[in-house]
Amino acid sequence: MLDSLVQLVGAGHVTDDPEVLVTRSVDYTGRYRGRAGALVRPGSPEEIAAVLRICRDAGAHVTVQGGRTSLVAGTVPEHDDVLLSTERLNTVGPVDTIERRVSVGSGATLAAVQQAAAAAGLVFGVDLTARDTATVGGMASTNAGGLHTVHYGNMAEQVLGLQVALPDGALLRRHSLVRADNTGYNLPSLFVGAEGTLGVITGLDLRLHPAPAHRATAVCGFAGLDALVDAARIFRDLDGIAALELLDARLAALTGDRLGVAAPVAGNWLLLVELAGDTDQTYRLADLLQHVSLGEEPAVGVDTATRQRLWRLREAVADVLGAFGPPLKFDVALPLAAVARFADAAGTLVRRHAPGALPVLFGHIGEGNLHCNVLRCPAEAEPGLYAAMMDLIGECGGNVSSEHGVGSRKRAYLSMSREPGDVAAMRTLKAAFDPTGYLNAAVLFDTP
């Protein structure tokens, strides 16, 4: 099989070097590790399709990797897999400013797409702090959301067309020059969010948006989480809401101590809110803040430099989370009414199962999408804490995953969010596309 792969993509793009494979078999957090037999880096959609045929015929499992920023061990191999990297499919085509779209390879980074859009006076709707490494193919595979989901939606809303290499080695391309195309099955929707279990996304047609002429940003401090949630209810459905981010003051203290990025206002809970539009948003934001129960005057930024300083607080979170070793991560969406209860109960669970650990909370409060990270959590405490936390999420009416996907870490909890008939239908689709189950076998589904 390795000889066939070398013949196909070239010796420089295939390796079974154990030292290389070890670095490629660990997840983004460094908490979970697997094992792989080879790494192959195809250079075109046709080569990816051919690699899939070779691996299927050889009976080898394949794990697809893009930027390897999965937070649920979605790119960690479990079956001595062939690692199929899309990193060489990194082209970004010319931006169509009339139709506001761009065609890109699945291995293009989010930052590259954002830069191309900005050069054309447009914006791409999804933004993540891992923008320099996250690839748009992986983001589509997990239906990623991010910092501006409250305004633009998840990746599903940005995808106008796809090219996919199917498990049988065929290439499927859904490309249309018009946006209103209701011809037959909506096949792209099958692959967005499928986490690579039905095929390998090789290219995407992405929607771009007009760049707002004006933005106004504020960071507000709250004594209690209930008051912040009430404010989030006011802001989340407004026209022009561009961002609505929750930040635990414990995290802000860490960014201040370790990175020199201190919170601009006091409060146990912080809310970053941004409005965007074609007209000046300053007075509108000020008027809205008058209706919110704040602990003190908010910090407001209208000019670019001030807004960037406020955003730095939120951006710094990613830089500080790993300072205490690999964090234990929970990605969940909750009804807003349950957010405060969850925060209190999650703290109690951490104290019970891992007394020396530190739980911190942040996320996209407009969708109730929270990221609960447990810092300094010892490995021996993880099984009990993980199970208890997932039970709590279910009791609060939450789901198993909001934007990170299920991956391999959460596959045992799929039934939390999907009824048996739903899971059975998904398994039927998986079997139809991938009868032998060799593609991303560790992801999404637990053993029947």
TrEMBL record:
Organism: [Mycobacterium] crassicus
FAD-binding PCMH-type domain residues: 32-211
Cofactor requirement: FAD
Protein name: FAD-binding oxidoreductase
Domain of life: Bacteria
SUPFAM superfamilies, alphabetized: FAD-binding/transporter-associated domain-like, FAD-linked oxidases, C-terminal domain
Swiss-Prot/TrEMBL keywords: FAD, Flavoprotein, Oxidoreductase
Similarity comment: Belongs to the FAD-binding oxidoreductase/transferase type 4 family.
